[in-house]
Design a protein that fits this description.
Length: 84
């Protein structure tokens, strides 16, 4: 049986994301607000905790947060290996 949750590299998305714990990422939400920061934690629902998070809207910095929780069902995409 073919596992439809695997990408073309044969790695499940959640397994791939967990490899980026303690690394900088950028998350863009469905409402087009984006957050960059260091991912501290994720769970099976792809909820994410970011540390030293910066909020962006239309590529403009809007706010900084020491920690932020992002609900997984609001995520449009995640940019791994992010650097400003």
């Amino acid at each position: 049986m073919n596992n439809k949750l695997s990408n073309e590299f044969g790695v499940k998305p959640l397994t791939l994301i967990k490899k980026y714990i303690d690394k900088p990422i950028k998350v863009t939400l469905k409402n087009e607000v984006a957050y960059s920061g260091v991912m501290l934690e994720t769970d099976n629902y792809m909820n994410l905790v970011l540390e030293k998070a910066t909020e962006f809207y239309n590529n403009d910095r809007r706010a900084n947060y020491p920690y932020i929780l992002i609900r997984g069902n609001n995520i449009m995409y995640i940019q791994l290996e992010y650097s400003e």
